[in-house]
What we know:
Blueprint: E1 8-12, H1 16-28, E2 32-36, H2 39-48, E3 53-56, H3 65-75, E4 80-84, H4 89-98, E5 102-105, H5 110-124, E6 133-136, E7 139-142, E8 147-150, E9 153-156, H6 159-170, E10 176-177, H7 178-185, H8 194-208, E11 218-221, E12 225-228
Parallel strand pairs: 1-2, 1-3, 3-4, 4-5
Antiparallel strand pairs: 6-7, 7-8, 8-9, 10-12, 11-12
Helix pairs in contact: 6-7
Amino acid sequence: MNEHRARRILLVDDDASLLVVLAEQLRDDGFEVATARDGQEALRRLDAGWPDLILLDLMMPKIDGLALARQIKSEADLPIIVLSAIDTADSKARLLDEVAEDYVSKPYHYPELRARIQRVLARLGDRIPHQSLVLGPNLTLDLHRRAATVSGKEVQLTPTESRLLMTLAASLGDIVATETLLSRGWAETEEAEPSYVWVSMRRLRQKIEVDPDRPIHLLTVRGVGYRLVAVREDPSCVDASRAGG
């Protein structure tokens, strides 16, 4: 990505006054901003071109924010920050796991929102591979679509799973510390624990490994972290003893 190009943001909210004020604030900070007042208008905007990030309200007419986010994520893994007056822990947790990279409660404090936008773009903007990553005869990752192809069958990945795989793919073959994965996967979650990573890695193995009990791509380095490994030979010839837990 050309680092000199203004990052494009699509702002989706049915509050006209918020659209005007927030769009002006973002433009003053150098972003290119498009706006939409409902889900249908947002989809028309997306037909004309993909932004780098979407700021999305949940409570909207015609298509609610969650349904819109799910539709967007089914087509491309665009970063989404939810900007909503719904401020419950359960809602935040569900959205962060399913469709959103971050969640900001209304009324928002613009400097904080700007910082979160910049963190999401820095974390994801240039790291999402726009081509397939072939890791072996039975595994191809398409992280720009939040999907993997395992033995010819496509499986969908959650945003958290995609973030973890992006982090591992950026250091393909090398060890990535559990603490690093925790910071990438749950950057805005207070009191996040290493067990979040352990559970997510077990779930990822169920999705991307032909034999989750004998992994050959997503390997544990006990007491340190994990490695994502490309395997070129027939998986049946790989010594699974080096796979770890």
